[in-house]
Amino acid sequence: MTRLHHIILALGSNTQQATVMREARKLLSALFPDIEFTHVMWTEPIGMEGEPFQNCLAHATTCLDVQEVERKLKEVEVLCGRTKEESLRNVIRMDVDLLRYDNYRCHEQDWDRPYVHQLMKEIK
């Protein structure tokens, strides 16, 4: 029997925000059919110069292991146009981070961000 794992994702974009966020949500919905997204909110960049971000969180279930989830998320970033060169210039077309895999918390520093606290209230 395949075990389903609960995941929470954080999405962010500071370039062509609405268009890229829409594309990322579409791609993630294809990967995780039961995914549910929070509302999108604008935030100022943290720890970098650049344009404001659109951010949201998402909750889904998956039978993939944690490494495969991480690999799929990086693929989504690339499909949304993210490049290392742009990232070095603080242009983040799409950043998708795995915040939680079952009870394991990832990206510990992100959990302290105000928008994560606020949007977590929308996660079931």
UniProtKB/TrEMBL annotation:
GO terms under biological process: folic acid biosynthetic process
Domain 7,8-dihydro-6-hydroxymethylpterin-pyrophosphokinase residues, every copy: 8-123
Keywords associated with the record: ATP-binding, Folate biosynthesis, Kinase, Nucleotide-binding, Transferase
SUPFAM superfamilies found in the cross-reference section: 6-hydroxymethyl-7,8-dihydropterin pyrophosphokinase, HPPK (SSF55083)
Pathway it works in: Cofactor biosynthesis; tetrahydrofolate biosynthesis; 2-amino-4-hydroxy-6-hydroxymethyl-7,8-dihydropteridine diphosphate from 7,8-dihydroneopterin triphosphate: step 4/4
Lineage: superkingdom: Bacteria
EC annotation from Swiss-Prot or TrEMBL: 2.7.6.3
Record-level Gene Ontology MF annotations: 2-amino-4-hydroxy-6-hydroxymethyldihydropteridine diphosphokinase activity; ATP binding; kinase activity
Pfam families attached to this UniProt entry: HPPK
Similarity-based family: Belongs to the HPPK family.
Role: Catalyzes the transfer of pyrophosphate from adenosine triphosphate (ATP) to 6-hydroxymethyl-7,8-dihydropterin, an enzymatic step in folate biosynthesis pathway.
Name of the protein described by the UniProt record: 2-amino-4-hydroxy-6-hydroxymethyldihydropteridine pyrophosphokinase
